[in-house]
Amino acid sequence: MRKNIVAGNWKMNLNFEEGVSLFSEIVNMVKDEVIGKQEVVVCSPFIHLNTIGKLAETVGNVAVGAQNIYQAESGAYTGEISASQVKSVGANYVILGHSERRAYFGETDAILAEKVNVTLKHSLTPIFCIGETKEERESGRFFDVIKTQLENGIFHLEAAEFAKVVLAYEPVWAIGTGLTASPEQAQEVHAFIREVVAAKYGEEVAESTTILYGGSCNPSNAQTLFSQKDIDGGLIGGASLKSRDFLEIVKVFNA
Ligand code: PEP
Fold it and tell me: Model pTM?
């Protein structure tokens, strides 16, 4: 049985007080309303992590993660944050390869492969994002694009290490645009990803890999997306900034 996960990506939003207050709201709502076995994750900016990580450790029903780490262990990398630093404040997850980092910060598959290694080395779970641009979808190249992102960014792992990874399919054209992939479009790609994983690591690993969908997921479309056979939850941007919306998405797995 693979894990269902709903992870919020706050991106570069919320000052310290706002973030801590939103996280407290989420924790309380999860305590009162979440009755399923889904894992709830909040990936905040670095400034919140220490405080919400401690809160998360006390409460135990919501995990926290970072949105990025630097690939080196430590040293003269002014302005960067390492995997061990993130781990030391109680985080358990790191988003890697988000399309915004690929597009705006030049993160290549090769850099991401290094980030995957250091993330796993420090017992953090990578949420490894893959997905095609609008142009790649329209030209029909999206399957190749996604396969290449997997092959070059994460398929260097041994099966035992790969089994610790969470994948997130995030079509770039659906992120922050209000254009959600239809459940059929998303399912088609999720099934393809699982096939590619099976060809590399075998059926058993593929069947137990959690694959999240991300891209304008909200309380009104989450149910139909998450009911698809190969969609195991969501990576949620905009809708994770409102506690009630985020909880409505999480609660899809209550049944
Ligand atoms: C994201 O940034 O990972 C994302 C899915 O954003 P949104 O939900 O806002 O499209």
Answer: 0.97
The alpha-carbon radius of gyration of the chain (Å, integer) is 17
- What distances in angstroms separate CA 74 from CA 46, 79, 178, 211, one per listed residue? 16, 12, 39, 31
Is 98 labeled as catalytic in the residue annotation?
A: yes
> What distance in angstroms lies between residue 118's CA and the mean position of ligand 1's atoms?
25
pLDDT category at 36 given cuts 50, 70, 90 is confident
Question: To test the ligand 1 pocket, which listed residue (10, 11, 12) has its Cβ within 8 A of the most ligand atoms?
Answer: 11
Residue minimizing CA distance to atom 4 of ligand 1: 237
Residue 143, φ and ψ in degrees, nearest 5: -65, -40
- For 42, which DSSP code? E
CATH (domain of 237) = 3.20.20.70
- What residues contact residue 181 under an 8 Å CB cut-off, 6+ apart? 171, 174, 189, 213, 215, 225
CA-to-CA separations, 247 to 6, 8, 128, 143, 170, in angstroms, rounded: 9, 10, 23, 32, 20
Reduced to 3 states (helix: H, G, I; strand: E, B; else coil), residue 242 is coil
CA pair distance 22, 43, nearest whole angstrom: 12
Domain hosting residue 153, numbered range: 5-254
Domain total in the chain? 1
**pLDDT tens for each residue of 118-153:** 999 999 999 999 999 999 999 999 999 999 999 999
122 is catalytic: no
